[in-house]
Amino acid sequence: MNCVYQVIARRGERLGIKLHPHMFRHTFAHRWLDAGGAEGDLMELTGWDSPQMLRHYGASARAARARRAYDRVDVMGGT
């Protein structure tokens, strides 16, 4: 284990939660996409060369984003 992982994991233990560095990447990706950020920009910001990384990190909250998008999009013509 590297030092960053250990520091974050120990801090999580003290808080009584399971915490690891990749949770921050998942959260960042989710919030970026949920706010309407472009996938290509997210890939650039995170240094991902492969769309597979985008799918991996974006998948953790894909269903929640889809539900919010459904609520925002007026598919029935104004109710």
Report on this model:
One of its GO terms (molecular function) is DNA binding. It holds the Pfam family Phage_integrase. One of its GO terms (biological process) is DNA integration. Keywords: DNA recombination. By secondary structure, the chain is mostly helical. The chain has a domain of 50 residues. The protein is 68% helix and 0% strand. The chain contains five helices and no strands. The chain is flat, with a radius of gyration of 16 Å.
TL;DR of this structure?
The chain has 79 residues and is mainly alpha-helical. Helices cover 68% and strands 0% of the residues.
Report the span from N to C terminus. 54 Å
Low-confidence stretches: none
Shape call: flat
The tally of beta strands, per DSSP, is: 0
The Cα radius of gyration reads 16 Å
Specify the biggest β-sheet: none
Helix content: 55-70%
Structural class by SSE content: mainly alpha
How would you spell out the order of helices and strands? HHHHH
Percentage beta strand: under 5%
**What does the average pLDDT come to?**
87
User: How many H/I helical runs?
Assistant: 5
